[in-house]
Amino acid sequence: MFVRMGPDVPGSIPLVHVHGFAVSGHYLLPTARALAARATTVVPDLPGYGRSAAWGHALGIPSLAWALLDVLDALGLDRVYLIGNSMGGPVSLEVAHRAPERVAGVVLTSPAGGMHNQPLSRALVQLARDVRRESRHMIPVVLPDYVRFGPINGLHLFGELVRFPSLERLLRTPVPTLAVIGGRDPLMPPPWRVRELERLGPSHLTVAVIDGAAHAMNYSHPAELAQVIGRWLDGEVTTGDPDQPGVVPAQ
């Protein structure tokens, strides 16, 4: 499996960035680089994605979670933080539920799946809206990945993703969890609804909103996202202030 590794940061708990649907980890690199000074960064391409070997068919969320655990084993990483975007969110949650002792915490950036994306026809409309809101500079980054993954695999996996119980997994997360939502992300519930759900979750669930961001904030808003993650890792409450533009209080 192909894995990108940042410089080693001795004494740190590694940050593993988990990519989304049908794409490789390439688009996650802006945020990974922004966080590389504070911890060793790992950006894998899961089986069948990007520069990893083709699998023959699209693996489901549970299988991708097992594959991610295999990556951690192969790299000798006993305990990590998982930073999952879109489909990488459900995959990270699955790993946390299966092996909480391996996961120091989970960061979910625009975690896809669940009721808000059902039925499939609604999710496809949401996806089309998001494409118009993303940075045009991301097109050459992700288009080769989409072409390689293929429409048949894409439709199969997208159908499974929208049926995945993301909300239930999130509300029962067994490890400290930060959910970061883009204020312009049509694939996510509105920010007020997300904050309402936060009150239903465990005390170790924190929610933040980045104004102006759509779904792929790891690419479009790496500085803002890295600030939010960094403050969460430091145990600080995420608040809006002049020194942290674009971050809306999750209160």
Structure characterization notes:
The chain is α/β, with parallel strands linked by helices. Helix content is 40%, strand content 15%. It is built from ten helices and eight strands. The protein has helices spanning 29-35, 61-75, 88-98, 120-133, 139-149, 151-163, 166-171, 191-198, 217-220, 222-233, and strands at 3-5, 15-18, 41-44, 80-85, 103-109, 177-182, 205-210, 247-248. An eight-stranded mixed beta sheet has the order 1-3-2-4-5-6-7-8, with helices on both faces. Helix 8 links the parallel strand 6 and strand 7 (205-210). Helix 1 (29-35) packs across helix 10 (222-233) and helix 2 (61-75) crosses helix 3.
Write the H/E string, N to C.
Answer: EEHEHEHEHHHHEHEHHE
Q: Give the integer mean of the pLDDT values.
A: 85
Determine the N-to-C terminus distance: 40 Å
Radius of gyration: 16 Å
Count of helical segments? 10
* Widest sheet: strand ordering: 1-3-2-4-5-6-7-8
How much helicity do the residues have?
40-55%
Based on Cα principal axes, name the global outline: globular
* Contiguous runs where pLDDT drops below 50 for at least 5 residues: 240-246
Oligomer: single chain
Strand content: 15-25%
Estimated structural class? alpha/beta
Largest sheet: 8 strands, mixed
The tally of strands reads 8
Outline of the structure:
Helix content is 40%, strand content 15%.
Protein topology:
Layout: E1 3-5, E2 15-18, H1 29-35, E3 41-44, H2 61-75, E4 80-85, H3 88-98, E5 103-109, H4 120-133, H5 139-149, H6 151-163, H7 166-171, E6 177-182, H8 191-198, E7 205-210, H9 217-220, H10 222-233, E8 247-248
Parallel strand pairs: 2-3, 2-4, 4-5, 5-6, 6-7
Antiparallel strand pairs: 1-3, 7-8
Helix pairs in contact: 1-10, 2-3
